[in-house]
Q: What sequence folds into this?
């Protein structure tokens, strides 16, 4: 193993330098921790059936590793890039690793978010659910480690190896309950899309090397591509990473795979893996690829805005809680891609401060989404465990039975709905700020059209709030819709710890943006995108574009909200003297309503479904007035699936049938082929 | 041709006999006779090897002649005869292509093989180079036997006959393969025969027939 650090003067004090010398460089430490993840997984394989070892010991250990990785990476954020060459793999093809500000940011995300998920996973996995716990533990930690390696990779070879390991390990995690046919199908769809995406990424790297035939990222940074090839590389990257992230129209695997996977795995995939795809996109668009005109950024802006709207509209119509969250992930990925495109446009238009702002918004939103979406998926996992139900139509009133899960999930719900003072608001606010500068872009028409995107983002944010009200209200509030829900129990201690960790992350990210934004600014400046003007705000006030521009002070906001609530409570306590009578929820004080008369998930989503009717392929069955047991059911299909994927699958089938003409399953025919080939080859050679 | 020594003329006629036997196998529908023809082919091969060994004084060829005799003339036909008795398949009726048609294709194949062998024969320095074309023809005719038959049994015999052709080709081009290879091939053929025997019984158990057509309706996924 050869290590080399960039020859910059070390600003750290001597004793810290001595400590780092003893423990190795941050890159070596992170590498060691990633290997520790793999080792933890391997230990799980020793006794695959033992839940005690896998769940109670290994998963918490993995969480500790995650926290350590996040801490090391966070400390390295402001440091110059560090490199390493690992002489493993194919001969004369060492793996290059590199830790810079961008990868450090995503390592923080990976470590911190996965710590919460691992803690939760320690209490979540049970015996007798398909894959044995030890094997699951191995796949899970391999998945984590491979994501870490993707972030560290500094050549196309290492990147692709890690990327494919990530895809395969997550495939096995998705299909951990492989005895159910639906889950196997979802897994296959995921694997198919992952491989198509990987193919696009591979081709993208092939273009990026620019004729040098060296596949290190350094060679790609130095390569000069013509505008046409640069555009090709960019579009390939967009397709490849978009397929992994779930950008419409490559999103089809997401709503299938997320409900199929166990909840911690859904959380990890949605919260972390999608961000790894975002990392890849950022790496290609802002680091490896040069010579691309800035207006190409409009492509991800358009696709991203469409994905965001599409995802949230479909989320509004879902009745399966995990599928709803999956569609909400598509929405958030859309927002992320919008931000990426916006940063590209601004970067191309030589507007460094706003470009940096858009990029920071992307990074911030990636961090936020990792915490809040993981939190929500884990919440659904707890609900699923204690009730056995994923269908919103059979849940309700769980806040009384599962107070811990309900209150911690509420934090995630408020955050993802974009309400201040939580974290979702901050990144969406930053993105909107960036959008508000779009009219300064020096391209005709674009400067007029782009600000409209701000309106779309606002619409999406509002709809996200609507969807989250539906999600939370139907699952946790009101009265139980089934009598079996009365036996629901709250989550265990480990699960609570995991949820609390993630909720804490949401709150911290929401209250301390003024500390975090400058740290993320390091990424923007190290990528050469630009820097935010200095001197805006202080620890409690965020003013990204300088002291005289718009600002946001979350602690003051939070203080005001809390003070307002407390004052109201006190005022009511002081003035209201009559006795308190408790009635069932949502009955307006009466008791005539039952669980069946409440608003349902279908009913709540109906207005949105009505507004966006042309988007849905709906199949409805309405009860007639004479039904003794009336049932209303609606099945919502994806038009993109029917318009794009079904014909595609049909073509593949027809092509296979053409080939099947030659494949008769008849020994004589095969022998005839062999004879013909033999004769042909002999005639050719001689 | 007048200068060709008597031994070589004898060798050439043995080669011609080999080709004739191949045609006979192509036309034969009785499986028991097919086995006898195969044994006869092995015998001719053995004689040719012996002749060549005497002519070149190569001890290795003597050994491979002994191998041919024991495996191809005695062991394999004995195994095949026993299997035929046990399985009760005596006839391979109605081949996929009728016998005259098969013979015509066979003639075309022989012409093709001779055309093919010409440049090789020009390159080879052995005394038996004229036989290379016959060796290729034997291989391809055995292939044709396999293609046109319906019963698994006759296909196996075709396969074994193909091995005869390969052996003869190697012998006439380079005075035989290295001993190790030859031993290995002989062993492989024996083992393959035993494995196929097991397969035959299994196929008959499953489908009550050794007709390969029955297998076609049992492919997966169609």
A:
């Amino acid at each position: 193993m050869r290590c080399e650090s960039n020859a910059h003067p070390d600003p750290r004090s001597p004793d810290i330098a001595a400590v780092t010398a003893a423990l190795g460089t941050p890159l070596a430490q992170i590498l060691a921790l990633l290997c520790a993840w793999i080792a933890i997984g391997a230990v799980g394989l020793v006794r695959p059936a033992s839940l005690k070892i896998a769940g109670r010991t290994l998963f918490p250990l993995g969480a500790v590793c995650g926290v350590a990785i996040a801490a090391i990476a966070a400390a390295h954020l402001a440091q110059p890039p560090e490199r390493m060459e690992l002489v493993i793999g194919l001969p004369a093809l060492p793996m290059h690793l590199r830790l810079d500000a961008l990868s450090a940011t995503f390592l923080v995300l990976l470590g911190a978010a996965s710590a919460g998920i691992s803690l939760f996973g320690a209490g979540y996995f049970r015996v007798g659910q398909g894959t044995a716990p030890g094997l699951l533990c191995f796949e899970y930690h391999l998945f984590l480690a491979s994501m870490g390696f993707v972030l560290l990779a500094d050549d196309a070879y290492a990147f692709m190896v890690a990327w494919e390991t990530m895809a395969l390990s997550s495939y096995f995690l998705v299909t951990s309950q492989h005895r159910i046919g639906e889950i196997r199908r979802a897994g296959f769809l995921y694997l198919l899309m992952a491989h198509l995406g990987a193919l696009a990424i591979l081709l993208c790297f092939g273009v990026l090397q620019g004729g040098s035939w060296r596949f290190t990222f350094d060679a790609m940074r130095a390569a000069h591509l013509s505008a046409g090839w640069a555009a090709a590389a960019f579009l390939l990257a967009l397709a490849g990473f978009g397929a992994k992230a779930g950008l419409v129209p490559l999103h089809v695997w997401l709503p299938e795979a997320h409900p199929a996977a166990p909840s911690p795995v859904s959380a990890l995939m949605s919260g972390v893996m999608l961000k790894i795809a975002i990392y890849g996109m950022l790496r290609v668009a802002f680091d490896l690829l040069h010579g691309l005109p800035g207006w190409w950024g409009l492509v991800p802006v358009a696709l991203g805005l469409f994905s965001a709207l599409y995802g949230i509209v479909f989320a509004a119509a879902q009745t399966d809680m995990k599928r709803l969250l999956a569609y909400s992930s598509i929405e958030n990925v859309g927002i992320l891609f919008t931000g990426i495109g916006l940063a590209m446009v601004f970067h191309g238009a030589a507007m460094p401060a706003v470009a940096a702002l858009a990029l920071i918004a992307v990074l911030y939103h990636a961090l936020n989404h990792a915490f809040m979406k993981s939190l929500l998926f884990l919440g659904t996992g707890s609900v699923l465990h204690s009730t056995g139900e994923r269908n919103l139509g059979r849940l309700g009133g769980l806040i009384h039975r599962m107070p811990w899960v309900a209150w911690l999930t509420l934090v995630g719900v408020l955050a993802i709905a974009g309400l201040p003072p939580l974290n979702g608001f901050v990144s969406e606010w930053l993105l909107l700020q960036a959008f508000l500068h779009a009219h300064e872009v020096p391209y005709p028409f674009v400067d007029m059209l782009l600000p409209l995107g701000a309106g779309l983002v606002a619409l999406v944010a509002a709809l996200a709030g609507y969807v989250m009200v539906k999600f939370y209200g139907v699952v946790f509030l009101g009265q139980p819709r089934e009598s079996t829900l009365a036996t629901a129990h709250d989550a265990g201690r480990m699960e609570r710890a995991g949820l609390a960790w993630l909720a804490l992350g949401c709150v911290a990210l929401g209250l301390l943006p003024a500390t975090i934004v400058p740290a993320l600014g390091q990424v923007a400046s190290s990528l050469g995108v630009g820097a935010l003007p200095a001197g805006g705000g202080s620890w409690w006030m965020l003013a990204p574009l300088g002291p005289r521009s718009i600002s946001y002070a979350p602690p003051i906001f939070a203080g005001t909200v809390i003070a307002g609530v407390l004052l109201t409570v006190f005022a009511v306590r002081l003035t209201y003297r009559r006795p308190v009578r408790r009635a069932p929820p949502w009955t307006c004080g009466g008791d005539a309503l039952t669980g069946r008369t409440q608003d349902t998930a279908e009913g709540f989503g109906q207005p949105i479904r009505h507004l966006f009717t042309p988007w849905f392929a709906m199949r409805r069955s309405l009860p007639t007035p004479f039904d003794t047991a009336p049932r209303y059911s609606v099945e919502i299909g994806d038009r993109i699936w029917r318009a794009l994927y079904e014909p595609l699958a049909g073509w593949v089938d027809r092509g296979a049938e053409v080939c099947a003409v030659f494949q008769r399953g008849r020994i004589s025919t095969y022998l005839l082929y062999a004879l013909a080939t033999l004769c042909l080859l002999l005639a050719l050679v001689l | 041709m007048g200068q060709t020594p008597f031994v070589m003329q004898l060798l050439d006629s043995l080669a011609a006999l080999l080709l004739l036997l191949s045609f006979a196998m192509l036309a034969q529908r009785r499986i028991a006779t097919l086995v006898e023809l195969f044994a006869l082919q092995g015998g001719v091969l053995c004689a040719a090897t012996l002749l060549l060994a005497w002519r070149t004084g190569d001890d290795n060829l003597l050994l491979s002649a002994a191998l041919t005799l024991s495996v191809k003339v005695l062991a394999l036909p004995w195994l095949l005869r026993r299997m035929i008795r046990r399985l009760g398949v005596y006839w391979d009726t109605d081949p996929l292509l009728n016998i005259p048609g098969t013979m015509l294709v066979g003639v075309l194949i022989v012409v093709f093989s001779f055309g093919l062998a010409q440049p090789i024969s020009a390159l080879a320095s052995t005394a038996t180079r004229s036989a290379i074309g016959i060796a290729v023809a034997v291989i391809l005719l055995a292939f044709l036997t396999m293609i046109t038959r319906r019963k698994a049994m006759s296909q196996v015999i075709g396969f074994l006959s193909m091995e005869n052709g390969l052996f003869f080709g190697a012998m006439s081009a380079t005075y035989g393969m290295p001993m190790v290879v030859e031993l290995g091939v002989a062993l492989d053929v024996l083992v393959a025969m035993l494995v196929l025997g097991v397969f035959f019984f299994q196929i008959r158990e499953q489908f009550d027939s050794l007709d390969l057509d029955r297998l076609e309706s049992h492919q997966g996924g169609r």
About this structure: The two ends of chain A are 52 Å apart (CA to CA). Residues 1-12 of chain A have pLDDT under 50 and may be disordered. Residues 1-222 of chain A form one domain. Chain A touches chain B through 15 residues (CB under 8 Å).
